[in-house]
Design brief:
The protein is α/β, with parallel strands linked by helices. It contains 8 helices and 12 strands. It folds into 3 domains: 100 residues, no CATH class; 69 residues; 116 residues, no CATH class. It starts with 25 loop residues before the first helix and ends in a 17-residue tail after the last strand. It is elongated, with a radius of gyration of 34 Å.
Length: 370
């Protein structure tokens, strides 16, 4: 008797999971599609967040573009055109970040490429065998020789033994933070060491033991590490600082706060020199020495004050900004231009500050002897 071949199996479409999800079900859906433990994919997405936020935009793009398990069988992309357009924009941003990481820095690009290749190989080698669920036996009666026989259902699967892997991983994360604190006081490094211990534990738990509850600690820690690393990458500085420019240090920038510009350390007398001070959000306060003429150049829309009074200045002949002239209150010995830029804040100029710069001493002329 010739057996007929099994019917062809239709390819399984990629869907976001509704049952195995933490945020959008992307990692759970990829785990079901690739037959990989979703914990490994969540760790991979988490690590990719530290590289310019690539993982965040990639996850959001899949969240917007990929339908969930309730979509019709033939649907491969979201039916909403709004989600399609928004998802395409987010995917374009993710692709731009990825290309920038790969080709922006030679050494960094090699590292990122090796990491991506390692994750792909890891996923391919970590694929689990598909679980085939046998149909449960029905409880009823069968007849054999005229006598009823009871058919019992299969016994329930015994619960898995208790796993202490999660507790071990939590203790390892605390220990890693403690050791890192002895080496450095950088909060990002301290949190990253704990996050690394939790990630390694969850990856081990994908093969042995149970440690998924560590996500309760790993997810908030991942958000903090990602935000902190991006702040350090952008070199964001905050606070109220005093900047004393010199002829060798002619520029200063601050992300958030107040900059007090004083010229106590200036060597000699300026003769048309220029200095630049840039504050993203905050105020710039300039103390103009009484022996200098200080020319402050800023944007037209920037609020400016001269000695406590609102000053609109005059248009800058060399640009699109405006100029506020702080005249000396004593004998003029120098002339300086300050290019002051702030996106959200004001520029405050006070004249009459102590004289700055050391005045060269002129030796008296010797009289000729008769």
């Amino acid at each position: 008797m010739q057996m007929s071949p099994p019917p062809p199996v239709a390819p399984r479409p990629f869907r976001r999971s509704n049952s195995d999800r933490i945020f959008g079900g992307v990692a759970g859906g990829l785990g079901q599609y690739w037959n990989v433990d979703p914990v490994i994919l969540r760790v991979a997405f988490g690590v990719s967040l530290l590289f310019g936020g690539f993982g965040l935009f990639a996850y959001l793009a899949l969240w917007l573009l990929v339908p969930d398990e309730t979509a019709p069988p033939g649907t491969r992309i979201s039916d909403s055109w709004g989600l399609r357009i928004l998802g395409a924009i987010v995917a374009f941003i993710a692709a731009g970040i990825g290309l920038g990481l790969l080709f922006g820095d030679a050494n960094g690009g090699v590292l990122i490429g090796a990491l991506v290749a390692g994750i792909v190989v890891w996923i391919a080698m970590s694929r689990r065998a598909p679980v085939v669920q046998a149909e449960p036996a029905e409880v009823g009666y069968a007849y054999s020789g005229g006598q009823p026989t009871t058919v019992l259902a299969a016994p329930p699967v015994p619960p898995r033994p208790r796993s202490y892997l999660g507790l071990i991983g939590l203790c390892a994360a605390i220990a890693a933070a403690g050791v890192t604190m002895l080496i450095t006081d950088n909060p990002t490094a301290i949190m990253a060491s704990s996050l690394l211990a939790l990630a390694v534990t969850m990856v081990i738990g994908a093969f042995r033991g149970r440690a998924r509850w560590l996500l309760i600690f790993a997810v908030p820690l991942l958000v903090l590490v990602s935000a902190s690393s991006q702040v350090q990458r952008a070199d964001i500085t905050t606070g109220q600082v005093t900047w004393q420019p010199t002829a060798d240090q002619e520029s200063y920038s601050l992300s958030l706060g107040v900059v007090d510009v004083k010229f106590d350390d200036w060597d000699g007398q300026p003769d048309g020199d220029e200095v630049d001070v840039d504050v993203t959000v905050g105020d710039i306060r300039i103390a103009a020495p009484r022996n200098w003429e200080v020319r402050v150049v800023t944007d037209q829309g920037t609020t400016t004050y001269l000695d406590g009074l609102r000053e609109n200045g005059v248009p800058d002949p060399d640009g699109a900004g405006k100029v506020i002239l702080a005249k000396p209150t004593g004998a003029q010995q120098g002339m300086l231009t300050v290019n002051a830029t702030t996106l959200a804040g004001g520029v405050y100029i006070d004249t009459g500050a102590p004289a700055a710069g050391n005045t060269p001493v002129i030796a008296p002329k010797k009289e000729k002897k008769a």
